[in-house]
Amino acid sequence: MTPARAPRADAVRNRKKILAAAGEQITAHGPEVGMDEIAAAAGVAVGTLYRHFPTKTDLVAAVVAAYIARVADDAETALGRVEAGAHAVDELTAFLRRVVEASVTDRAVKAAAQTLGAEPGDRADEDRAGAAVAALIQVGQADGDIHPDVTVSDIYLLFSTAPTDQPPAARARWLALVTPGLTTRTREAGN
Amino acid sequence: MTPARAPRADAVRNRKKILAAAGEQITAHGPEVGMDEIAAAAGVAVGTLYRHFPTKTDLVAAVVAAYIARVADDAETALGRVEAGAHAVDELTAFLRRVVEASVTDRAVKAAAQTLGAEPGDRADEDRAGAAVAALIQVGQADGDIHPDVTVSDIYLLFSTAPTDQPPAARARWLALVTPGLTTRTREAGN
DNA sequence: ATAGATGGTGAACCACAGTTCATCTTATTC
DNA sequence: GAATAAGATGAACTGTGGTTCACCATCTAT
After folding, report:
1. In this complex, do B177 and A181 lie within 8 Å of one another by their Cβ atoms?
2. CATH number given to A56-181
3. In this structure, what are the phi and psi dihedrals at residue A101, rounded to the nearest 5 degrees?
4. What residues are paired with B183 via a beta bridge?
5. B45 CB contact with strand D at below 7 Å
6. How many CB pairs under 8 A join A and B?
7. C-alpha dihedral sign at B141, B144, B150, B153
8. B9-54 and B57-181 share one CATH topology?
9. Given an 8 Å threshold on Cβ–Cβ distance, is A166 in contact with B184?
10. Domain spanning B9-54: CATH superfamily
11. A174: nearest CA partner in chain B
12. pLDDT < 50 regions, chain A
């Protein structure tokens, strides 16, 4: 069922360039960047964009998928560290922080995803991330550091509400406000 | 310095109708509702909208201002209850919950405010709300219930990150996750 | 080297939403 | 009840941005 001949070399190259450019442009100027601008940034004509992605929504979806893949990688790495002996709570909060920090860059991606009807291009990556986070939580709960009723969807909930458009100080503060809800430790003064 | 004759009666009436309709339409269908639709809902022609509000951004700003005024009222009422003997923490969290709940209706307002360059039409209402919340926090801290380093901007930060587009259960859960960051009490199991 | 399809180009197209304005209506004033 | 200014109307205009498509270029298999 795959008799189609292999895609042309330059087509593959262009696809990558487009994806990269789209990511950059969207994170830089928000989701309202025109297709023309993305095309220009990729060093390609608009038509080429449409050859690879039938619609702008599809393009954004692809960018979002790439973002999710990155997050999944991050989560799995964190899990790896825990298996190597690191504390799960620490890794989880650090993961949270990292995602929130990174989302400054990727905030527009999120916005774009909502503006258009962003579809999960690759459910697989989403699952990967979920599994890793779940494992992280479980270990943390076994350690007695993470509150027993915390679930993966809690983490997603916090992700989706992260103040990506706020200055660094505010993001740090937000993290400080939110972590006590996840851990069993009493809130410490700070920041 | 006010020699201008009083505005016509129907003009005043229309202004109200427009504001009301704009609020409804935006909360119902998001900030992307067309001016035509708002006009239709108000039982007026588009041109009338532009007579009262030179641009769509101005109209949205007016709607946002009305929203802020409502929040300010709410905060002041809560403060009143505290002065009458209620616990400040409870009132603060209840206030938070109320705003989050209400924002289901008003979520689009927030979105609209960000989409366009929403300007604070009435700084006064903003200040009213801020003052009331500050008082609430202060009393709560004096009671020893609210963490000493909590500030008004923390509350604003939480507002701005409230999951307004999530189902009720998720919003409740969010509140449960976030409150421990404000209080001095240890997190209790729940939900 | 050549054929033929795959991929690339970009000017033109189109739909949509905000905005304008010449004209008509209606409230207010004397 | 005129006269007049304030307000209302809505068809038409405009600019923007996604999308198309007829034509050209390039890669790959033979």
Report:
1. yes
2. 1.10.357
3. -60, -50
4. B146
5. yes
6. 71
7. negative
8. no
9. no
10. Homeodomain-like (1.10.10.60)
11. B157
12. 189-191
